[in-house]
Write a structure and sequence with these properties.
The complex is a heterodimer of chains A (198) and B (420). Chain A has seven helices and six strands, in the order βαββαββαααβαα. By secondary structure, chain A is α+β, with helices and mostly antiparallel strands. A two-stranded antiparallel ribbon of chain A has the order 1-6. Chain A has a two-stranded antiparallel ribbon with strand order 2-3. In chain A, a hairpin with a 5-residue loop joins β4 and β5. The two termini of chain A are 25 Å apart. The relative contact order of chain A is 0.22. Chain B has two domains: 75 residues, no CATH class; 255 residues, Fumarate Reductase Cytochrome B subunit (Up-down Bundle). Chain B is elongated, with a radius of gyration of 38 Å. Chain B has a two-stranded antiparallel sheet. The longest helix of chain B has 35 residues. In chain B, α12 packs antiparallel against α13 and α14 packs across α15. Chain B is built from 15 helices and five strands. The chains are: A alpha+beta (198), B mainly alpha (420). At the A-B interface, β2, β3, α2, α3 and α7 of A face α2, α5, α6, β1 and β2 of B.
């Protein structure tokens, strides 16, 4: 099976936020929750670059390691998913996640964390594939339809790549070799303990 | 002079001998090439480049006064315009249509050298952040500003704390204390009243004091159990009862934990106000501690309302409980005061102190029930046996008797001797 990863080519990202919008629309993510976001480093200064960031579906995922109710699981494609029926909204995964991927809807009292929500790599959750129940809880299951995540599919500059790690890494390397520069793959060292060297 | 500087600038990265330096050498060339002649043959341009940094060569000279910019990893985009701008007037053979028009009216000035050009790659920045304990943050255009954190490597440290440090601290503290208590019970047994029960009792804790004590104690037990469940439950309970029941248990535990935090805190504050007067350490405590409070060996050192051991319990409860409550509220209201790193620290403080407090409270529970005969009724009915009070709090008994005496004859002290 493939080892699914995200790769954001920050030399191409133009911070159009279309990936954010596409994700929210495709998955009908509630208000206040952004499974994907675009962060601009060195804004307005030389070396400015934007990176689209979501759950990186880490190898040895920290969220899964710290979850007190063990609600996380990894699919055959190495996509890190969680079962919202088991999640208690404690926020531990958010403390552990290096990328701030876990999001919590505000419900109930105090800090009011509801059940955690995060990028599913458009692979939804443990419910029956493409069922209404699955869609309501997790959003679209494009992987089950043989499609890649929508954020990457519709990226206008093809900055955001999704797919098998080896393939997207080779695409990126080819780009770097062709154009002669590349800032590297954001998050790869942290998420996958590896780097993309051109 | 310029050439010397340039040579220095070029030599430094080469001396470093890293692949990075190699890439930097290559990159400006290819970027320049692409700018100069998009469709040109690469070899020809390489040669033109290789003719070396002559006095007419624009880019390197502009760069030369700032040798450190040569070590820039990501400065190709900025460099490229520089080179084309300065190349055009000189009419380099590779430039397109070199003979076109006399020199542009005003040459575009080279962008000023900027130190920020030296941008390490994503991987290097991540590694640097991880090693320095910093995080990588930028600007974000969605309302949730806390999402502008791109990478926070501290999550890994927190994970290690939660999965290893806290687990073992808790296991050793709680089980260790339980073992110590069991061992103590086996060796010393129950500390009996030496004089037996007298049958006469005296009031030790009033109704309000007992209510507050038990409010704090009962909430503490629920808070402790629901907290321990977060650390140990997935290893101990989940395999026994299954996923869904364990989630339900933990979910209600979390709700109880959140709500009972408030009566617990109230109890801590009230107990502090009730008992702080009797819990100021003094010299008697040293005597008491030297004799291990009579728990080891025989004989009971004199003690006022609270002995040194009880004072320790008091301060552990007030200070430890206070800090646990404070860090708990930070966790209860995420992002109101603390960001994600603040929350991690709060949790580390909360978890560690809680584990230690649970261990101390196990000792407190043992001493108050099984450990010392006659002590439970102090918090039960509020009254203790006169002999118990004599043996464990002799000075307190004297104080109480004097007070009782004074209440009967309030003017005794004021009356002159031999007046009646």
């Amino acid at each position: 099976m493939a080892r699914m990863k995200f790769l954001c080519d920050s030399d191409r990202c133009i911070e159009c936020n279309a990936c954010v919008t596409a994700c929210k629309n495709e998955n009908e993510v509630p208000w206040g929750i952004n499974r994907r976001r675009v962060i601009t480093l060195n804004d307005g200064k030389p070396g400015e670059r934007s990176i689209s960031m979501a759950c990186m579906h880490c190898t040895d995922a920290p969220c899964a390691a710290v979850c007190p109710v063990s609600c996380f699981y990894t699919t055959a494609d190495a996509i890190v998913l969680h079962d919202k029926d088991l999640c208690i909204g404690c926020g531990y995964c958010f403390y552990a996640c290096p990328f701030g991927a876990p999001q919590f809807p505000k419900v109930g009292n105090f800090g009011g964390r509801g059940k955690m929500d995060k990028c599913t790599y458009c692979a939804a959750g443990p419910e029956q594939d493409n069922s209404a129940a699955e869609y309501a809880q997790y959003g679209a299951n494009r992987i089950a339809e043989g499609k890649l995540p929508l954020c990457a599919e519709m990226c206008s500059t093809k900055a955001l790549l999704a797919g098998d790690g080896d393939i997207i890494a080779s695409i990126y390397k080819e780009r770097v070799q062709t154009r002669g520069y590349g800032a590297g793959a954001w998050g790869w060292r942290t998420a996958y303990r590896e780097t993309v060297d051109a | 002079m310029r050439r010397a500087l340039l040579a220095l600038g070029l030599a430094l990265p080469l001396l470093a001998g890293t692949a990075m330096a190699q890439a930097q050498q290559q990159a400006p060339q290819s970027a320049e090439t692409a700018q100069a002649v998009p469709n040109g043959a690469p070899t020809a341009q390489q040669q033109s480049q290789d003719r070396g940094p002559g006095p007419d060569k624009g880019a390197p000279e502009v760069q030369a006064p700032v040798p450190e910019s040569q070590s820039a990893g990501e400065n190709r985009q900025q460099q490229a315009p520089t080179s084309t701008a300065t190349q055009q007037p000189t009419g380099t053979p590779t430039a397109p249509q070199p003979e076109v028009a006399p020199v542009p009216v005003s040459p575009i000035p080279a962008p000023p050298p900027v130190s920020e050009r030296a941008q390490p790659s994503a991987e290097e920045q991540e590694l640097e952040a991880a090693l320095k304990g910093q995080h990588i943050q930028g600007r974000i255009s969605i309302p949730n500003q806390s999402a502008s954190l791109l990478v926070q490597p501290q999550g890994r440290d927190w994970r290690a704390f939660r999965n290893q440090t806290l687990f073992w601290t808790g296991a050793i503290a709680v089980l260790g204390m339980a073992a110590v208590i069991a061992l103590f019970y086996l060796i010393r047994g129950r500390v009996r009243l030496e004089a037996g029960f007298s049958g006469r009792t005296m009031l030790r804790f009033g109704f309000i004091e007992r209510v507050v004590h038990w409010m704090t104690a009962s909430t503490f037990i629920v808070l402790a159990l629901s907290g321990l469940n977060l650390t140990f439950g997935r290893h101990l309970i989940r395999p026994l009862i299954g996923d869904q029941p364990f989630t339900d248990l933990t979910h209600y535990g979390k709700i109880a934990h959140n709500f009972l935090a408030f009566p617990f805190t109230l109890g801590i504050v009230l107990m502090f106000l009730f008992w702080v007067k009797g819990n100021i350490p003094n010299k008697l405590d040293l005597v008491w501690l030297r004799q291990f409070g009579g728990m080891v060996g025989s004989g009971n050192p004199p003690s006022q309302q609270f002995n040194a051991g009880q004072k320790v319990i008091f301060w552990v409860t007030v200070l430890g409980g206070g800090l646990v409550a404070l860090s708990g509220y930070l966790l209860l209201f995420p992002f109101t005061v603390a960001g994600v790193n603040g929350l991690q620290w709060s949790h580390m403080l909360h978890g560690t102190l809680s584990m230690l407090m649970i261990a101390v409270m196990l000792g407190h529970i043992y001493i108050g029930t099984l450990g010392i005969e006659g002590s439970f009724s102090a918090m039960g009915s509020g009254r203790v046996d006169y002999n118990w009070a004599r043996e464990h709090h002799s000075l307190w008994v004297d104080d109480e008797l004097r007070k009782a005496h004074d209440s009967v004859r309030p003017e005794a002290a004021a009356r002159p001797a031999g007046a009646d």
